[in-house]
Automatic annotation (TrEMBL):
<feature type="binding site">
    <location>
        <position position="202"/>
    </location>
    <ligand>
        <name>ATP</name>
    </ligand>
</feature>
<keyword id="KW-0665">Pyrimidine biosynthesis</keyword>
<dbReference type="InterPro" id="IPR006266">
    <property type="entry name" value="UMP_CMP_kinase"/>
</dbReference>
<dbReference type="GO" id="GO:0033862">
    <property type="term" value="F:UMP kinase activity"/>
</dbReference>
<feature type="binding site">
    <location>
        <begin position="36"/>
        <end position="41"/>
    </location>
    <ligand>
        <name>ATP</name>
    </ligand>
</feature>
<dbReference type="GO" id="GO:0006207">
    <property type="term" value="P:'de novo' pyrimidine nucleobase biosynthetic process"/>
</dbReference>
<feature type="binding site">
    <location>
        <begin position="84"/>
        <end position="86"/>
    </location>
    <ligand>
        <name>a ribonucleoside 5'-phosphate</name>
    </ligand>
</feature>
<keyword id="KW-0963">Cytoplasm</keyword>
<dbReference type="InterPro" id="IPR027417">
    <property type="entry name" value="P-loop_NTPase"/>
</dbReference>
<feature type="binding site">
    <location>
        <position position="123"/>
    </location>
    <ligand>
        <name>CMP</name>
    </ligand>
</feature>
<feature type="region of interest" description="NMPbind">
    <location>
        <begin position="56"/>
        <end position="86"/>
    </location>
</feature>
<feature type="binding site">
    <location>
        <position position="174"/>
    </location>
    <ligand>
        <name>a ribonucleoside 5'-phosphate</name>
    </ligand>
</feature>
<dbReference type="GO" id="GO:0005737">
    <property type="term" value="C:cytoplasm"/>
</dbReference>
<feature type="binding site">
    <location>
        <position position="163"/>
    </location>
    <ligand>
        <name>a ribonucleoside 5'-phosphate</name>
    </ligand>
</feature>
<dbReference type="InterPro" id="IPR000850">
    <property type="entry name" value="Adenylat/UMP-CMP_kin"/>
</dbReference>
<comment type="similarity">
    <text>Belongs to the adenylate kinase family. UMP-CMP kinase subfamily.</text>
</comment>
<keyword id="KW-0808">Transferase</keyword>
């Protein structure tokens, strides 16, 4: 019995070792910028041209809000409408699960664009507690966009997005949250020399700049 067990384990061991050696540590780019700056749009462009997986914290939270039986649905709904940042315990679990699932399906998918995170101190602490040792943050891709342009883009998107927060009332709060809580996080990474800034107010040329950054950083 023990002999048989040993032979099963030793037969499996090489493939297990092989898998582990192929499993790369996740490489992460945080994507930040105001509401409507174009984070999602540019992440889609990147995915089409580079081997990155796009994970939007906002999209993951909206999916959790809609998930039947979610114990967090109502809390998430009210935070989103109020433009507030959901407690990180919820968000980090969604991100971690999405990263793990992606890598389990295909071990070559170890590059991630994490869009809309970390948005405040609490987000950053949660990342450091749960993910710091499990993933490398390469840099922050910062879509710098004027408040006026952000508001116009979100109001325009609101005509068809069905989002509960693409309206003037929520937008005022989202912009305030961005200025008060997210900008300091971007500044913190700037001090570490880890921010790549793109002028995102323009209607063209944004992706050309993104490409130049990725080609240089990769
Ligand atoms: P974010 O994810 O940062 O909130 P999105 O990528 O969803 O922003 O873009 C917000 C809205 O602005 C969308 O309707 C999108 O089509 C539009 N948009 C994105 N980038 C640009 C741009 N450079 N010029 C004009 N409109 C843009
Ligand atoms: O990035 P997006 O615009 O999709 O985010 C929408 C909302 O989701 C935010 O205004 C916020 O309420 C919530 N969110 C959050 N924590 C994050 C990302 C998004 O609470 N890290
Ligand atoms: Mg988005």
């Amino acid at each position: 019995m023990i002999g048989r067990l040993f032979s099963v384990v030793s037969q499996r061991a090489p493939s297990l070792l092989h898998r582990v050696s192929l499993m790369m540590k996740p490489q992460v780019v945080f994507v930040l910028g105001g509401p409507g700056a174009g984070k999602g749009t540019q992440c889609s462009n990147i995915v089409e041209n580079y081997s990155y997986t796009h994970l939007s914290a906002g999209d993951l939270l909206r999916a959790e809000r809609a998930r039947e039986g979610s114990e967090f649905g109502q809390l998430i709904a009210s935070y989103i409408k109020e433009g507030k940042i959901v407690p990180v315990e919820i968000t980090i679990n969604l991100l971690r699960k999405a990263m793990e699932e992606t890598m389990q399906k295909d071990e070559k998918k170890f590059r991630f664009l994490i869009d809309g995170f970390p948005r405040n101190e609490d987000n950053l602490q949660g990342w450091n507690n749960v993910m710091k040792d499990k993933a490398d943050v390469k840099f922050v891709l910062f879509f710098d966009c004027s408040t006026e342009v952000c508001i116009q883009r979100c109001l325009e998107r609101g005509k068809s997005s069905g989002r509960t927060d693409d309206n003037r009332e929520s937008l005022e709060k989202r912009i305030q949250t961005y200025q008060q809580s997210t900008r300091p996080i971007i500044e913190l990474y700037e001090k570490l020399g880890k921010v790549c800034r793109v002028d995102a107010s323009r209607s063209v040329e944004v992706f050309a700049d993104v490409k130049a950054i990725l080609d240089k950083e990769d």
